[in-house]
Amino acid sequence: MIVTIASGKGGTGKTTIAANLALLISNAQLLDCDVEEPNAHFFLKPEIKTSRKVFVRVPVIDESKCTFCGRCQKLCAFHALAVLPSKVLLFPELCHSCGVCSHFCPEHAISEEDREIGFVEIGSRGQLQFIRGLLNVGESMAPPLIREVKSYLNPTRTNIIDAPPGTACSMVESVRGSDYCLLVTEPTPFGLNDLKLATKVITEMKIPAGVVINRCDLGTEDVRKFCEQESIPVLMEIPFRREIAAAYAQGDLLLEKMPEYRPSFKKLWERIENFAAEGAA
């Protein structure tokens, strides 16, 4: 089973939920797909055993063959090429590695080469498997690296994906193919607004979802009302407590620092399994 932990905004406690669930579940692995700012390793403290660079293909222009006809520029949907009278400019950070430019070049003046965008680390903490991606500084596109992280999805294990915050392409790529999506939010106007955006994305992707409300005793009742109106189950509520914030700040797992929360997380996981099964039926 693949369960993705997502949120419409950052700072809601998404990684806290993901890391503690991964620790709770037997035969699990956690994939940190928040490749721009991965931080699940701070809590799980895995032993990293393998690190592998990740590359994408980008065009290389042979200007001795190029007639500067401009066809590649016209065909590039991402504006990664600019053809001047005697020069072709490439903006590799915009390239989506689709290969259209090289395929349709009438002079066969375009080939492709590898460009490093980041790396994937693989490790473990006891029986828990851990995979994370880290995007190189300055890179603007996370989805290729996220796809590489997800290539390690293990069908023999329960896969917990820690998705990037927001509702952009990186979040969509992380959630794609999941059996269930757990949306973590907070009872504030910002939390509600971004929960609505995230819910719309998940609904379009036809993935069953539930909500965790963090810092539930702050703010208003608007998040709960929205979930009720949209028939989205609220699977867990976590109170605002100084000791929880202190544990997070120190990089401690909630289940280890405050084991009294273990029954709540166990019930959360049981409800996820039940709703995922209903969604698959």
Describe what this molecule looks like in 3D.
This protein is of the alpha/beta class and 281 residues long. The chain contains eleven helices and eleven strands. A nine-stranded mixed sheet has the order 3-6-7-2-8-1-9-10-11, sandwiched between helices. It is elongated, with a radius of gyration of 22 Å. The model has no long low-confidence stretch (mean pLDDT 93).
Chain-wise SSE layout:
Elements: E1 2-6, H1 14-24, E2 28-32, H2 40-44, E3 47-61, H3 71-75, E4 81-84, E5 87-90, H4 100-104, E6 110-125, E7 128-135, H5 143-150, E8 158-162, H6 169-175, E9 180-185, H7 189-204, E10 209-214, H8 222-229, E11 234-238, H9 242-249, H10 254-257, H11 262-280
Parallel strand pairs: 1-8, 1-9, 2-7, 2-8, 9-10, 10-11
Antiparallel strand pairs: 3-6, 4-5, 6-7
Helix pairs in contact: 5-6
Helix content: 25-40%
- Count, helices: 11
Low-confidence stretches: none
Strand content: 25-35%
Q: Using DSSP, what is the number of strands?
A: 11
Keywords:
281 residues; alpha/beta; 9-stranded mixed beta sheet; two-stranded antiparallel sheet; elongated
In short:
This protein has 281 residues and is an alpha/beta fold. Helices cover 34% and strands 28% of the residues.
